[in-house]
Fold each of these.
Amino acid sequence: MRKLIPLAAMLIIGVCLSGCEENQKIDLSAEEIVDKALVAIESPITYYGEFEESDGEKYKEWADSDGKSKLKRRDRLQQTVEMFDGKQLFLYDEENGMVAAIKRSYKDIGFSTRSLRLRSGFLLELVKEQCELSVVGEEKVAGRNTYHIVGSQNGGKACIGKPEYWIDQENSMVLKIFENYDERQKVTIEYTKVDFDAKISDDAFVFDFPEGAGVNTIVDPEESSVQEAKEKLGKFFQVPETAEIKLSEIIIFEENKERPEFTFDYTKNGQPEFSVTVFPSSGEIDFGNFLDEEIIAAHGQKGINNSNLHSFSYTWMENGLLYTATSKNTELNEEDFIGYLDGMIEVQ
């Protein structure tokens, strides 16, 4: 005759088996789960999804394994559409009737798109660097099994927003994000529907521009040099380097070939201090025509003060070039900021 197992023993066994099973499911660390998500995002996949943000904005998304994607956003007032054809990202704004075209690779599209999957890459890179990550459990999002990852303060580093991520267990796609900055600012972005077996036709990626919509091609800034600035600007003024102040980077923005724009970034002891942007002016500017303009003297020239609560910013014109200098260090005082500008020397 078979012996009966006491009820208490059965409960203990059941709890043990349940716990063991759960532990077997989460056999990856938070860092491993995030690393898998970062690898997965490098390769396009096919899916149809719908997600929404806590501010009420709703999105519909189509993506294909060849890298093409399309996204429609609807808020209470207007609709925007973006489409990526593998080489360019097209952004249509219904309010102003314009289409912006930005040259992008699949690898770089995450910095420009509103797609939760595509932009989650750089978000995960950031949280991996700043925060201590832990797996707090498994949850369902849009009917799919996910790992729930939480970021917390890592030593002396600030874990901004105390982010939480829900990552699909099967294909490592981020399905939900939560960020908590304070009681008044909490952000949730969550897929409410996602179908990885969706049959998406080529017609889904047709982007017919609305009648009358203009197309504005946007050119990204690129790294440059003092030599290139001399060639395209001619004589110009530059803040000289010292033992503390170093010219860290020069960027050229050349959307208009006749009007190249150079930005010179300076650091002090390795930390951002200020920047100076220079470009040819289309004509003389008589500063002071507007009642709210605060007139200042910068590098001995008449200019205006564009400063705000967070930074100093002066704009002036000199020898046909328009200069705008902006502080980058909140501890920089106005006297020292002006000193940098007064010390600018001519580059020939």
Amino acid sequence: MGLIAQLALFSEETDRPEGLQYTAEFISPAEERELIAHVSALPLQPFQFGAHQGKRRVASFGFRYDYTLRRLQQADPIPGWLEAVIGKVETHGGPSTRIAQVLCTEYEVGVGIGWHRDKPQFGRIFGLSLGASCKFRFRRPAGEKWQRYTLAAAPRSLYMMSGASRQIWEHSIPAVEAKRYSITFRTMTDRKS
């Protein structure tokens, strides 16, 4: 490996937000096809942000955040077809990891998600990318500018946000170039996570 390639790898690792982990090929292509079939068969609804309606379509399980009431609400129970992948995510996260909330999302071509941090009621965040890759962008204030980092999230990959990547950095996804699905798995802050 040449010096420039080594420096690029070093730079990528030192720029990565603390607490952000990435695992390529977390699931098999067959598991991905099965999960996409299940998610696409859900009664997905446009994302509601108070009075505003987003372009991505979602279904929440376990809990959902009500932006009008500004609090968590009970949602439908987590479906049985998610048990196997939740087991893999919990094993990957370590012995105290307990997934309590799942969000299934469909992104049509041209749809993304703006800058945000997940609600403080949630602990660690795990995201499984399905169907197409995306640019998973991070930013945090750095004086009068922003420090930025972009993770190329490939299909079948899993990311985990904890620590600074979860608490300090904001994240977003620019408009996707191909139809994409994601399944977000969240622990709760008031439980071991």
